[in-house]
Amino acid sequence: MKKYVELSTEVSQAMEQGKPVVALESTIISHGMPYPQNVQTAREVEQIIRDNGAVPATIALIDGKIKVGLTDEELEQFGNSKGVAKVSRRDLPYILATKQLGATTVAATMICAALADIKIFVTGGIGGVHRGAETTMDVSADLEELAQTDVAVVCAGAKSILDLGLTMEYLETKGVPVIGYQTETLPAFYTRSSEFPVNFKADDVDVLANTLKAKWDLNLHGGAVIANPIPEEHAMPEEEIHTAIETAVKEAAENGISGKDTTPFLLGKIKEITGGKSLDSNIALVKNNAVLGAKLAVELNELN
Fold it and tell me: What is the model's pLDDT at position 259?
């Protein structure tokens, strides 16, 4: 394993000193936002994690290595490069073997974080069961990873382009707890709530940390979804975002877009329809998740 995993100096020192570390994905840089906003946001999110007492570890595949923690140059390279591979569980071995640049999705970031013994991972929103999955079988690998990999994912719920009800059902089947941070309903990414209740509500970070510790102490393998609603002032009006999503989903179907191309297409289309407001919301919710993720990593680190 050590042959493939390379820690940055900052992450390596943090591990040696027993400091809390928070994993970050790189798909948000390569496929989630335009340059230079993507690099700027990545740097700001990393700084938020440092400001809240933890060490950031942005994860990506570069030259046959899983890089855990990126230098400024590597972040820049990622934000600027065309044709970066989007890497999930099935893609990891091939992208490593062929030494391509690879951006890790939620599933792949969880795998790499677990290899580096990092327990907390901050992202925007998890993937899930796509609309119409009862005929297409289009279910994100993120859900299967949550069922088996011991990493907690701090997110603003699942992306609202998905079927949230079926996503919650799938997670329940797999025994993955969905814990709402100061919320009783699943946040829907751009909006603070949905019609679907979370499994548990935690008002304090120490409740989250103690829950995760108990889960893993009991060898109940798999992750947890820590659902953290977008701040009120950055949430989008429900009607506006629902209309944008319906339009984008219809257009994706008309263009025959499927599989791993679906999410980037839909997010790009929604950004276009909302005049960029959805991207602003996306950035705000990731930063909000970074604050919670860092605090949770600090708390869990103290318990362990």
Answer: 74
Are 7 and 15 a contacting pair, CB within 8 Å? yes
Q: Is 232 a catalytic residue?
A: no
Q: Which of 10, 25, 46, 299 is catalytic?
A: 25
In the annotation, is 159 catalytic?
A: yes
pTM score:
0.94
| Number of domains into which the chain is organized | 1
The 8-class DSSP code of residue 90 comes to G
CA gyration radius for the chain? 18
Domain membership of residue 129 as a residue range: 5-303
Instruction: Give the model's confidence band at 134: pLDDT under 50 very low, under 70 low, under 90 confident, else very high.
Output: confident
Q: What is the mean pLDDT of residues 186-205?
A: 96
Torsions phi, psi of 227, nearest 5? -90, 115
User: What's 148's domain CATH number?
Assistant: 3.40.1790.10
Is the Cβ–Cβ distance between 281 and 190 less than 8 Å?
yes
Q: What's the pLDDT at 120?
A: 98
Choice among 159, 277, 287, 295 that is catalytic = 159
